[in-house]
Q: What sequence folds into this?
């Protein structure tokens, strides 16, 4: 068979194996390629870093499921570490039904690293169905939407939520979003209608859609995919806030090699295609 | 090497491998894992909706606290089941009409604010954008991009004269946008693969930290 024709017909199984090897090898033997922190990640970090312990709580909404964990869960961990290291109070909630499990996983571990206490330093409101009613209702009165926390305790009897009224009582809202309901709804209701300060962490697939909103200032900062998570981990580490495990940063070598292999395959396929077309 | 002894990790790892087996070709292991996932997701969603939504938001206020106003949403909800009775099928229009009316009223002004007003403001060339040369340059590029793409989607006049090169420029901006989206999509998929490999090689086999 003509070599150029063969280039356009590489079996997909071969491509999968090569990509798998390219991704696995740097996980086994890390290369340590540098990760440059992008301005949009820096902006979100700076927004949280500018808060002090007396600030109003930060609300983190877990709007993703386990399928998006590699990209969004490291963001959650890094943001929690940043907030707790600076003694900033955190309230967590979920717009996705799978969110509570992920929140519990993180809240079981990270607060202990910083000796943080439930109710005093952080609270978990749980999951609620019906995004429009929830986000509009929170603009009016959060306690009407979440009368009790995830464990069934009334918000009035929890120290950090006792005086919570609406978005005005939050320093900023951060949504870690893998789709709908997620960042679009938070921008639509919390930001556009109630002028809440919204920061966003998204899977890389959605990142290009969020950029216009960052440019206009509707979003205070953006973490895009595993790269964004890794950038935030680096910022938290460089500022001496945590020495904890950096999962996303560990994956960045593999990410770079994976991209390189895909680029090579795209170039090979195009060479084969153009040569074959010229021969015809 | 420090292989996990946790049976849940093993189950999770074996199911991951079963799903990965589809990359070779469709097979019974993949189908088993896929059906298990669909069934479990549906069951989980029903359980969480019952405990998280139906009980605290309807049954407790109505049947335990005796708040009779909650009969209205209950009846509205029950109207959805009228579909199964052909003679009463028209009742389903009531909750749908309510949702459409309420939803449109809530969403349209917010979308106008989020996507039209703010985005148009963001495209305008303001003096602050030119305080630094690079932000000024990007502001001009953004304005040119928005106008040329809008011209590309303007179908009411024939593309000739200035309209033709402007629309062609719009195509270039669109292609750049599609390229960025595709690049991000590749990045996302590779991230998912990395996540699974970190689990298989770390949590399961213990050959990475």
A:
């Amino acid at each position: 068979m003509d070599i150029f024709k063969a280039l356009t017909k590489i079996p997909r199984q071969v491509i999968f194996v090569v990509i798998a090897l390219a991704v696995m090898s740097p996980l086994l033997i890390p290369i340590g390629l540098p990760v440059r922190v992008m301005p949009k990640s820096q902006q979100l970090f700076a927004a949280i870093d500018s808060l002090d312990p007396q600030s109003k709580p930060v609300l983190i909404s877990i709007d993703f499921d386990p399928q998006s964990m590699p990209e969004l869960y490291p963001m959650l961990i890094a943001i929690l570490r940043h907030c707790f290291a600076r003694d900033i109070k955190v309230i967590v909630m979920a717009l996705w039904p799978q969110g509570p499990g992920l929140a519990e996983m993180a809240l079981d571990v990270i607060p202990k690293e910083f000796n943080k206490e439930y109710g005093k330093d952080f609270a978990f409101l749980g999951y609620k169905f019906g995004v429009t009613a929830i986000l509009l209702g929170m603009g009016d009165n959060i306690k009407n939407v979440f009368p009790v926390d995830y464990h069934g305790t009334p918000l009035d009897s929890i120290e950090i939520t006792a005086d919570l009224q609406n978005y005005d009582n939050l320093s900023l809202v951060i949504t870690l979003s893998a789709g709908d309901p997620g960042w679009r709804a938070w921008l639509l209701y919390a930001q556009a209608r109630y002028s809440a300060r919204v920061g966003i962490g998204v899977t890389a697939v959605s990142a290009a859609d969020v950029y216009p909103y960052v440019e206009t200032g509707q979003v205070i900062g953006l973490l895009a995919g595993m790269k964004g998570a890794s950038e935030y981990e680096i910022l938290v580490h460089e500022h001496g806030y945590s020495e904890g495990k950096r999962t996303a940063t560990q994956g960045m070598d593999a990410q770079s090699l994976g991209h390189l292999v895909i680029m090579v395959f795209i170039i090979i396929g195009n060479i084969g295609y153009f040569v074959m077309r010229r021969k015809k | 090497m420090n292989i996990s002894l946790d049976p849940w990790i093993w189950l999770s790892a074996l199911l991951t491998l079963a799903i990965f087996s589809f990359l070779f070709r469709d097979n019974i292991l993949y189908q088993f894992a896929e059906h298990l996932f669909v069934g479990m997701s549906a069951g989980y969603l029903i359980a969480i909706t019952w405990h998280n939504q139906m009980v605290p938001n309807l049954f407790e206020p109505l049947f335990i606290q005796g708040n009779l106003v909650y009969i209205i949403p209950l009846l509205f909800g029950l109207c959805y089941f009228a579909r199964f009775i052909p003679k009463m099928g028209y009742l389903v229009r009531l909750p749908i009409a309510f949702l459409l009316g309420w939803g449109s009223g809530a969403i349209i002004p917010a979308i106008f604010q989020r996507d039209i007003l703010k985005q148009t403001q963001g495209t305008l060339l303001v003096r602050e954008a030119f305080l630094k040369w690079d932000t000024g340059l990007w502001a001009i590029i953004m304005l040119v991009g928005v106008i040329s793409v809008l011209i590309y989607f303007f179908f009411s006049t024939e593309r000739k004269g200035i309209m033709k090169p402007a629309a062609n420029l719009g195509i270039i901006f669109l292609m750049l946008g599609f390229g960025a989206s595709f690049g991000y999509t590749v990045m996302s998929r590779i991230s998912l693969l990395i996540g699974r490999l970190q689990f298989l090689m770390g949590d399961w086999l213990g050959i990475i930290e």
In short: The mean pLDDT of chain A is 93. Chain A touches chain B through 57 residues (CB under 8 Å).
